[in-house]
Design a protein that fits this description.
The complex is a heterodimer of chains A (185) and B (147). Chain A is α+β, with helices and mostly antiparallel strands and 185 residues long. Chain A contains 9 helices and 4 strands, in the order E-E-E-H-H-E-H-H-H-H-H-H-H. Chain A has helices at residues 35-38, 42-50, 64-86, 88-91, 96-115, 119-132, 135-149, 154-161, 169-178; strands at residues 13-15, 18-24, 30-34, 57-58. In chain A, strands 1, 2, 3 and 4 form a 4-stranded mixed β-sheet that branches. Chain B has 147 residues and is α/β, with parallel strands linked by helices. Chain B is 26% helix and 10% strand. Chain B has 4 helices and 5 strands; from the N terminus they run E-E-H-H-E-H-E-H-E. Chain B has helices spanning 38-45, 50-55, 87-96, 121-134; strands spanning 16-17, 24-25, 72-74, 106-109, 138-141. Chain B has a 3-stranded parallel β-sheet with strand order 3-5-4, with no helix packed on it. In chain B, strands 1-2 form a two-stranded antiparallel sheet. The chains are: A alpha+beta (185), B alpha/beta (147).
């Protein structure tokens, strides 16, 4: 279970022995999250340590649908961290296979999470992970966008992301000359 | 990979590509990618090969100079990659181009392996000097530069 980290704000309630925090999405929905999971967000960690969150933590920049995913991610990773912390064989240093497998499972879980999102939801999650400062989630979502662009021509990338080509014909010619070294022309 | 020059998407053809499933809907969509902050776009670029990052300059005006302000330039080449054929020339141009203006924090270089016929110590010294002049933040040069 989550290690106690000393006195926290009065609003951290307990559910089944685990300290919980209440979050409110931009669209007014309430969510509960374990404090251990909330620690994965640098922003939330600072808010919790600061105290005075009697009525929960409002997140006007994060919609319910996105916050749900954020909490899923954080709870999953907090549980994984707690499990590896409490694993006696890990402490003995004898099960690098186990930790490697667990790490791989977690990566697979992350990929599954981001693969199941619409483009809109993916970008919402990127912005939320950035705002909440959740490094692992930001990496997983940004990596997904990078994967969507890999091996694609500029034309294909424009189509996927609805990017408008606002170069004039002359500018495109200039770009072609200037950046010929970057393309296999 | 040839440099393709095309016009932008017409609004009637815009599709909502789902990130993983490959399903499409004919829905007018906005370009949320370009709307991200420079910092977030640079973060996405961290997960791409350097030549892929540079090639994005042709996407639109927004992308034109974005690669040059990326805080990290990683010139490692993996075996299965589709790097530019003349990779030595690519790296030269990359590090000498005038627009590279990000800050130097770290400069790392692995010692060249036997395969490094295309580069010698003088080349690398020149890159490093130019990188410092250009104040690039991170340049990590690995030995695997032969294609």
């Amino acid at each position: 279970m989550a290690a106690e980290k000393g006195e926290k704000g009065a609003a951290a309630k307990e559910v089944a022995g685990e300290r919980m925090v209440t979050l409110e999405s931009s669209d007014g929905e309430e969510f509960h999250m374990s404090e251990a999971a909330a620690q994965l967000s640098t922003l939330l960690r600072h808010v919790i340590e600061g105290g005075g969150i009697d009525n929960g933590i409002p997140l006007p920049k994060v919609a319910a649908r996105t916050l749900e995913k954020v909490i899923m991610y954080c709870e999953k990773h907090a549980k994984a961290a707690a499990k590896s912390d409490s694993d006696p064989s890990a402490a003995a240093g004898s099960s690098s296979d186990n930790t490697a497998a667990a790490s791989e499972d977690l990566e697979k879980w992350d990929r599954k999470l981001v693969n199941g999102l619409s483009q809109d939801a993916l970008f919402d999650l990127i912005v939320a992970a950035d705002y909440l400062v959740i490094d692992g989630l930001l990496d997983a979502t940004c990596r997904k966008v990078a994967d969507m662009m890999k091996g694609k021509t500029p034309d294909e990338i424009r189509k996927i992301f609805n990017i408008l080509n606002d170069f004039t014909k002359e500018e495109e010619e200039e770009m072609r000359r200037e950046y010929a070294w970057a393309f296999d022309d | 990979m040839p440099l393709k020059v095309i016009s932008g998407c017409r609004s009637t053809e815009r599709v909502n590509h789902l990130a993983g499933s490959g399903e499409e809907e004919l829905t007018p969509r906005v370009d949320r990618l370009s709307a991200l902050s420079d910092a977030l776009l640079h973060h996405i670029m961290l997960f791409m090969e350097v030549w892929e990052v540079v090639r994005m300059c042709v996407l639109s005006q927004r992308w034109r100079d974005l690669w040059a302000s990326a805080p990290c330039i990683d010139v490692r080449v993996r075996r299965y990659s589709d790097a530019p054929r003349d990779f030595a020339k690519f790296v030269h141009c990359l590090l000498l181009i005038g627009e590279v203006l990000a800050l130097v924090d770290t400069l790392r270089r692995r010692s060249p392996s036997e395969d490094d016929e295309d580069f010698d110590d003088d080349d690398v010294k020149m890159w490093i000097c130019n990188a410092i002049k250009r104040k690039a933040r991170v340049i990590q040069l690995n030995g695997h530069l032969n294609l």
